[in-house]
Automatic annotation (TrEMBL):
The active site is at C278 (nucleophile). S-adenosyl-L-methionine binds at Q107, Y134, E157, D205. InterPro entries: RNA_M5U_MTase, SAM-dependent_MTases_sf, U5_MeTrfase_fam. One of its GO terms (molecular function) is RNA methyltransferase activity. Keywords: Methyltransferase, S-adenosyl-L-methionine, Transferase. It comes from the Eukaryota. This is Methyltransferase small domain-containing protein. One of its GO terms (biological process) is RNA processing.
Length: 356
């Protein structure tokens, strides 16, 4: 179930009072024609009669059925049917309207997520080229595209169903943003270097288990490339020689908003890494790996209470790859200056005849 604000024109303070619920019924059968399906219809009727628009307590926005035959701990199966109420559910996140279908990831705590987004947006320099890895329906990418005059935003997501939500949300973006926005359906861990190249800002919002080792590795290599230019260049540019058709297909956008041709922006690598984490243990581990070898420098971190009453925290962390180097350079400069001063002092001392 998702508690929704469903009408994005309702002021934030009144949203939860007027909220409606999108109900997803997970049904242990192949589809609506299978055994037990009459019970699904009966349950749908009961819910709609008692919580739908004609009931005294109008709390239900819509009802969906999901068919799941697997006995694993994966909640949803691949088949969805919309069986009552409005099909589209809209939320307002980061200043843009977002369509959240039940088959795509959506944050439940609207207010806290909005606070996080407002903070996050400020860390993205205007005119950036952004890659939003683990983007879901593209909430973060679209909010940034609408507010930071970005040159491009690329969203990368493994769940192909999120494409529909992304398309609907993109259709409500203000016109003439001057930003090329694309959504790609692929595994972010398959070819992370390809996604990092051409992006001045990388955003990662992985599931609770954190970043895949290949993504960590790519982020480390990218950050160190400035200092080890020769070695890194040859291995980073290998990505251009890719021949495997499925990898090449994944690079093509499944959705392309804005008709402008994508600029060739090779040679640009992320200077800013924004990490949104819902798993404290995995975040600590990933953070350690990122800051080891001085690949990245942790500039700032903010915590948000997305799940009141639990011990879970949501972290927004900002890493930079320039400040560490800059700091090091300043330190080295200061050290060199201090050494030179000490040498001159010592020379002067030697030259002066000592008093008897
Ligand atoms: C915590 S959610 C974040 C979604 C989105 N950033 C948002 O705020 O709505 C993590 C997302 O990562 C996606 N995901 C999981 N593994 C992935 C992978 N290997 N490559 C790309 N996306 C992945 C999930 O499907 C899910 O949409």
């Amino acid at each position: 179930m998702t508690v929704t604000t469903y009408n994005t024109s309702i002021p934030v303070a009144q949203r939860y009072e007027q909220a409606r619920v999108q109900v997803s019924l997970v049904w242990n059968s192949r589809d609506e024609r299978s055994k037990n399906s009459e019970k699904l219809s009966l349950l749908q009727e009961f819910l709609w009669t008692n919580g739908g628009p004609r009931s005294n307590l109008h709390v239900i926005h819509s009802i969906w059925a999901n068919f799941q035959t697997s006995t694993s701990n994966i909640i949803f199966g691949h088949k969805w049917r919309h069986i009552g109420g409005e099909a589209d559910l809209w939320e307002r996140f980061g200043g843009v309207d977002i369509c959240l279908d039940p088959y795509s990831f959506g944050q439940a705590n609207t207010l806290s997520f909005n606070s996080l987004l407002h903070k996050l947006i400020k860390y993205v320099p205007r005119g950036s080229t952004v890659v939003d890895l683990y983007s879901g329906a593209g909430v973060i990418g679209l909010a940034i595209a609408a507010s930071r005059k970005c040159r491009s935003v690329r969203c990368v997501e493994i769940n192909k169903m999120s494409k529909l939500s992304f398309e609907k949300s993109a259709s409500r973006l203000p016109p003439n943003l001057g930003c090329t926005i694309t959504w790609h359906n692929t595994d972010a861990s398959a070819e992370p270097i390809h996604w990092l190249e051409g992006s001045s800002v990388a955003i990662v919002d992985p599931p609770r288990k954190g970043l895949h080792p290949s993504v960590i590795n790519a982020l480390q290599r990218v950050a160190l490339s400035e200092r080890k230019a020769f070695k890194a260049k040859s291995s980073l540019t290998k990505v251009k020689d890719e021949k495997r058709p499925w990898i090449l297909r994944a690079r093509e956008p499944a959705v392309h908003v804005d008709s402008t041709i994508m600029e060739e922006s090779s040679g640009i690598w992320p200077e800013t890494l924004i990490y949104i984490s819902c798993g404290w243990d995995s975040f600590k581990k990933d953070c350690k790996s990122l800051i080891s070898n001085e690949a990245w420098h942790l500039e700032n971190a903010h915590a948000f209470n997305f799940f009141p009453g639990t011990d879970s925290i949501e972290v927004l962390a900002i890493f930079r790859r320039d400040s560490g180097i800059a700091q090091k350079k300043t330190k080295t400069k200061t050290k060199t200056k201090a050494k030179a001063k000490a040498k001159t002092k010592a020379k002067k001392k030697k030259a002066k005849p000592s008093k008897v």
